[in-house]
UniProtKB/TrEMBL annotation, chains A, B:
Organism for this UniProt entry: Rhodococcus wratislaviensis (Tsukamurella wratislaviensis)
Domain annotation Smf/DprA SLOG: ranges: 89-308
Protein's name according to its UniProt entry: Rossmann fold nucleotide-binding protein Smf possibly involved in DNA uptake
Protein family per UniProt: Belongs to the DprA/Smf family.
InterPro entries: DprA, DrpA_SLOG
Entry's Gene Ontology BP terms: DNA-mediated transformation
Alphabetical list of Pfam families matching this protein: DNA_processg_A (PF02481)
Length: 384, 384
């Protein structure tokens, strides 16, 4: 294997860019999160990774994970199909890759489903990183009550007016009400799907999905043609959680999928909020329970949500305090590996800190975001 | 002043027992909590305290507090009136005095309104200590919604069936629904009034109050004839909180009196619980807010309430663990003043421990309840 230059990413970004074709091929092959493949791509680049997959030149784990579809290469057709719908494939090569939204995955176990997305298929014209810069996820039961629909509309509408992007899963009930409320006030909204972006799921939301693409984005880590499936909904929920500053559950029954999204939010360090409801309403059982157990903070309106999600939303504001004591783990090791003055490259920092390259890559944008480090053509350096 | 023998309490307990007449006189004079008077009575007994009040032989604080009504002595008439209604005056002399329910006051500041009650006027045949041994207070807005009335009835009814006494303030709305639900299932209930027990307040609850007296107790620290007043409602709320194992707020608006009861419960170390409601309902604003702010734990049913209040309810059960490390402050000093074997009297313990007599009296029942000490005719001693 040889290491590809990352500067390939600055080449042509059209449908037939070989690097992008490689990303598209890999996305189709793994169908969902695959931390091992993400690491391989980090190490050797997407083209070399694609070659290794095609030629079965892989570790056992990665071999098993890719064997079923290694022979399927519809990359060019997939890219063309999505481009025809006004969409594109967004990868870590792109400026709009929501890098810092995916940092939390570095803390998760390395199990099959807990990794960051390899790449994102996107319908919509706005950059994903920009769309998700200040975002709140609002989720809940498909069987929303009138109360649930009403409160969802109030909270989502008020947040969208206030400039927050509303992220949800495009399902019936609370999800749909959240997207619609954002659209209704001319706000931004992102739908994350558990199938290819060429599929309208649920079919009854086909028109809604078109509107979302026009006023925000429809996003999926699954290649075009992928059908929805149980495990994909669960994986999708982790993206709903990760692409926002916090998750609000408006209504959820005892065994609602929303609790899975909440579980991801907790793993990823996102604030979890829930709207209470009558203790006599089955649709509020899950929310009331999560509040009771301390899994979610009670919120009654958009103001409460902003109060909870605010500190991250305000991260670029004047109130950010640089506190070295707040650093730990890899972030602290990487920071300390930087000299007092002068830049260092990612691989150099990996060697100096003893932190794996992919982790160094993950923590640097976080450190930058918090004002500890800066980056220019020469590399990364400490900020005063 | 001379120290009266406490054995007076073993004398006649009828209307014309001079010691009881003194308690009744003092209760009428101070109209509500008066820590300074409680301390004086602890020191010199009620008769000597009554003499001192009548003859203005008092400290400045106590002089001011009692001057307005020192000349009013309706003790005999008050005792006769209440006896005629099937009631009585319960004092610290009596076995039914809910001593341990009032211990929490020892931790409060010594301000005018924060003391224990001097004595309690009671209608109803059951001993107060027994009635309040396993008790839950349920309070809330007078303007309860249908939802609030329904949930109150469910929770209070289920708790009462389970053997818990329902304590409340006999007001319209949540209070009334709580009392009624307990009566409806043949359970026990206690109404604490902000006026004399001879007054039916609110008048619309006259029949309800009679039923409560027949199936539990109507209780007040105010002598007969005392009319309800703002400050008496606030003082009454502290008794509602103290006479139970925990306070449940079912519905409360933003500025509900229930929040005052909650504030007392927190000061007195009682668990505070609140039932959530629709965020669109003004009657649930206070409850939702208290849950959000961490002032109250969300409860949805009687099971949740018992889970929260249970550890105190189970205090006599087999699960009580004696842990010396749990003792602190006066309790620890008093315990350590006891010899390994053999009894000591209260004054002796006060001298040995350096803890004031009234505090020694307050902590001993607590220590007994927790199994650290025992008491017989010869005095208090350590338990193995």
């Amino acid at each position: 294997m040889t290491v590809e230059s990352r500067s390939d990413a600055n080449g042509p970004s059209g449908v037939h860019d070989p690097r992008r074709l490689a990303w598209a091929y890999l996305s189709k092959v793994v169908q969902g999160p695959c931390p091992a493949l993400s690491r391989l791509v980090e190490e050797v680049g997407p083209q070399e990774a694609a070659r290794a997959v095609r030629e079965r030149d892989l570790s056992e784990v990665l071999g098993e994970r890719t064997v079923a579809r290694a022979h399927v290469d519809t990359a060019a057709e997939d890219l063309e199909l999505v481009a025809g719908m006004g969409g594109r494939l967004v990868t870590p090569d792109d400026d709009e890759w929501p890098q810092w939204r995916l940092l939390g995955f570095g803390n998760l176990s390395r199990s099959r489903d807990e990794g960051p997305p390899l790449a994102l298929w996107v319908l919509g014209s706005r950059p994903v990183a920009e769309l998700t810069d200040r975002a709140i996820s609002i989720v809940g039961t498909r069987a929303a009550s009138g109360y649930g629909e009403h409160v969802t509309a109030e909270i989502a509408g008020d947040l969208a007016v206030d400039g927050w992007t509303i992220v949800s899963g495009a399902a019936f009930g609370v999800d749909g009400a959240a997207h619609r409320a954002a659209l209704g006030v001319g706000g931004l909204t992102v739908a994350v799907l558990a199938c290819g972006v060429d599929r309208a799921y649920p079919a009854g939301h086909a028109r809604l999905l078109r509107q979302i693409a026009q006023n925000g984005a429809v996003v999926s880590e699954y290649a075009p043609g992928t059908t929805p499936a149980k495990h994909r909904f669960l994986a999708r929920n982790r993206l709903v959680a990760s692409l926002s500053d916090g998750v609000v559950v408006v209504e959820a029954g005892w065994r609602s999928g929303a609790r899975n999204t909440v579980s991801w939010a907790r793993k990823l360090g996102r604030p979890v909020m829930a709207v209470p409801g009558p203790v006599t309403s089955a649709s509020s059982t899950g929310c009331n329970r999560m509040i009771r157990e301390g899994e979610a903070r009670l919120v009654a309106n958009a103001g409460d949500v902003v109060e909870e999600a605010g500190p991250i939303g305000l991260r670029d504001g004047p109130e950010v305090v640089r506190d070295l004591d707040a650093l730990s783990g890899d972030a602290l090791l990487v920071y300390e590996a930087l000299p007092a003055a002068g830049p260092r490259g990612v691989r150099e920092l990996s060697e100096l800190s003893g932190v794996a390259v992919e982790h160094v890559r993950a923590v640097l944008p976080l450190l930058e975001m918090e004002g500890f480090v800066g980056c220019d053509d020469t590399g990364w350096s400490r900020q005063r």
